[in-house]
Amino acid sequence: MEHAEILSQLEALHRDAFGWAVSCCAGDWHRGEDVLQVAYVKAVHGSARFDGRSAFKTWWFGVIRFTALEEARRARRWFAFLDRWRAEPEAPDEASPIVEDSELAALAIALRALSERQREVLHLTFYQRLSLSEAADVMQVTVGSARQHYERGKKRLREILPNRSALHE
Amino acid sequence: MNEPTPDDDLQVLFARQRAADHESTSPFHAMRTWALEAGATASQSGLAPGWRWLWPTGAAFALGIVTVWFATHHPATPPASSRDTLARQLAAIDAALQRSAAAQRELIAWQSPTDFLLHPSHHENRP
């Protein structure tokens, strides 16, 4: 794929990719932005190459997910190092824009209570509108495993979310 | 008419979340420009990512060569053979014996300061 074509595809997917990066960072906008920046560097400079074996969106979301995991691992090591020198570990910075919509705020809180896999599959299917098969591809799990996370995640989300009846109406 | 599915509530909620996120997303061009600049900085350094270990590896290799050179040109004390060890032990024993003999000679030559009192004097023997 040509460089210009890659840039064009990246631009078309930018907003969705941003949402996915934030989701991969458990709702932390600043970290999501950093992860997406690093993923762009990988895509622009060829350290992550699209080989055409899957859809571009699936591939790109896989790159973002992998980058988020790398960054999280690096951050964990760094914080573990800092914690040795700190009497009391600081609370993690959960930076996100102020959500005025109470239902959206409740959704953000409820999503944080889910497991990483559950959060991923629900985001990919409901937010990104991917099929379970595509979601499984991004998450690098089998479709059966993705379905299991999907069902459990939905069940758990409905248990946590307040005013479920209001949502159904 | 489409029947509502059991997941419609979640669909609606996530769609609202998506719309809200899209409004506050950082612009693509700013992020792309940053990525291009970051890549340009990396290429100016003249090192591909695979070559970033070149300097540490080279330094470690040079250090190894220097260490080997010192080891070969400034040999440490060679390990003593069993013959040398035996010779050293014999020398130590000899030195100890000599010290002991000297001490013995000193002991024999020693005389008590009041020893003369025990010997009879000429005046007392005189009739």
Structure commentary:
The complex is a heterodimer of chains A (169) and B (127). Chain A has 169 residues and is mainly α. In chain A, 73% of the residues lie in helices and 0% in strands. In chain A, helix 2 packs across helix 3 and helix 5 crosses helix 6. Chain A is globular. The C terminus of chain A is likely disordered. By secondary structure, chain B is mostly helical. Chain B is built from 5 helices and no strands. The longest helix of chain B is centred in the C-terminal third of the chain and has 28 residues. Chain B is elongated and about 140 Å long. Chain B starts with 7 loop residues before the first helix and ends with a helix. The mean pLDDT of chain B is 77. Classes of the chains: A mainly alpha (169), B mainly alpha (127). Chains A and B meet through helix 1, helix 2, helix 4, helix 5 and helix 7 of A and helix 1 and helix 2 of B.
Question: Characteristics of this structure?
Answer:
heterodimer; A: 169 residues; mainly alpha; 8 helices; 73% helix; B: 127 residues; 67% helix; 0% strand; elongated
